Amino acid sequence: MYATLRRKVLTMELAPGAPVSENELAAALGVSRTPVRESLILLAEEGLVQVFPKVGSFVSRVDPVRVADAQFIREAVELTALDDLPSVLDADVLAALHANLDQQDRAGIGLEEFFALDEEFHHGLLQLSGHGAAWATVSAAKGHLDRARRLGLGEASPPAVNAGQHRAILDAIVGGDVAAARAAMRTHLRAVFDDVERIRAQSPSLFASNDGSTPVRRNVVTWD
Amino acid sequence: MYATLRRKVLTMELAPGAPVSENELAAALGVSRTPVRESLILLAEEGLVQVFPKVGSFVSRVDPVRVADAQFIREAVELTALDDLPSVLDADVLAALHANLDQQDRAGIGLEEFFALDEEFHHGLLQLSGHGAAWATVSAAKGHLDRARRLGLGEASPPAVNAGQHRAILDAIVGGDVAAARAAMRTHLRAVFDDVERIRAQSPSLFASNDGSTPVRRNVVTWD
DNA sequence: CGACCGGTACTTGTATACAAGCACACGCAC
DNA sequence: GTGCGTGTGCTTGTATACAAGTACCGGTCG
Q1: In chain A, is it the N or the C terminus that has fewer CB atoms within a 10 Å radius of its CB?
Q2: Does the domain made of B64-201 have the CATH classification 1.20.120.530?
Q3: Which CATH number fits the domain B2-60, given the four candidates 1.10.10.10, 1.10.565.10, 3.40.50.10070, 3.20.20.370?
Q4: What does the pLDDT look like over B151-171, one tens digit per residue?
Q5: Which residue of B has its CA nearest to A40?
Q6: Which CATH architecture has domain A2-61?
Q7: How confident is the model at residue A156 (pLDDT cuts 50, 70, 90)?
């Protein structure tokens, strides 16, 4: 239930700014308001939707501030994790990472498929350092970032480029060069972040306005 | 509602392992099951309670793995933030931090009062680097850590020691010595973490058992 | 005496009904 | 034409009723 809604938001099936009525969703999904409402609460917790009491719930616009925050947290965690790499890497995780990269290199890979592999790859990297459990926190904070990435990917940073950066990171890790791994990771993470402003200029309606004005009902994003 | 329950869990008023029945809480707090249930869902999200469908909800035992994770995330975020300190610090935030430290130094400060000041201090440090919004994520991941701290504080790491470490951090920051600030911060954060194992030996029933056995109803922690 | 089987009392999960409140549209007065 | 007041329809928040399932207790049988 929650996973379904989260996916709809992350894949932009529910556009930023769009109203998400509990009644409407409940009817559409064939369940009661209760589970829908509980899912919405969770989504609100990670900032993907905004709930205005007695007014309505809306899909959050992509907030550059939150994107920057997610970026910072992710960078901090993933870079710091590299410092904790053990001298001998876990063979199973390593094999999974290499298999993952091979799949990323496959021609004609879909966008959503690539995203799933990307998630798995970064999670695996954290596992290599023994901090796999921290991925949950990173993942939760990463919602806004992911939406921005989906807007940017396929244009400035096609999957092939990302796959290449992934391989550079893993190669540096396997080679034992932590400094190189950190540099590659930083380059990779920043590449995503640098696209946000460009996207913002392209589709400003998807982003939060500068002032903190409360959204009104008519203020709906239509996929023009 | 959620804040009330969270406080009860963090202050150990609701002991780890204790059952938290929705009906019972609703009756005790004079509200319906619905708001209690929604609060419990949020608490479960941050790992403070565990919900076993059709069985019951229980306050999570302190999980050393999760404590270590929270520690790692916190260390990663707060140390990395120090690298982003601007050349000129925000005067207002700085003043608030100094005022905070003065309050920490007050004699006869209560434990809960100190905790609130500690939260405020670390949040302020993040604001100094322009990453104040990241505190929400750190705070959410920090639940397990906080419970462990409450167990340890007043014994091995009395408030006075922590206050001193806080001052060392801020002094290094004001002095522009990022390396010293990092060192002081690391010392401070590690001091908390190093106590966990000792506490565990002292009150093992408050911690998660090694095996992942599902708790049964009779398995209740009584404050012996 | 020990093992097994069923009833009971509790749990959470879901659906529904009611309460309270805000935004918008319509109509009226100026 | 313009501004204001009121009614209506929607929203979320809360309370309650029902459904489904599990653990425990006690009786019964071997």
Answers
A1: C
A2: yes
A3: 1.10.10.10
A4: 766 566 677 788 899 999 999
A5: B38
A6: Orthogonal Bundle (1.10)
A7: low
Mean of per-residue pLDDT scores for chain A:
85
pLDDT at B221 > cutoff 60: no
Nearest neighbour of B137 by CB, restricted to A41, A79, A141: A141
CB proximity list for B190: less than 8 A, separation 6 or greater? B75
Name residues whose C-beta falls within 8 Å of residue B102's C-beta, 6 or more positions apart in sequence.
none
Q: Which residue of A has its CA nearest to B136?
A: A141
How confident is the model over B101-129, as a mean pLDDT? 89
- Give the ipTM of the model, two decimals please: 0.82
Distances, alpha carbon A217 to alpha carbons A19, A47, A59, in Å: 8, 19, 12
Beta-carbon neighbour count of residue A66 at 10 Å?
22
Residue-level pLDDT at A214: 44
What are the extents of the domains in chain B? 2-60, 64-201
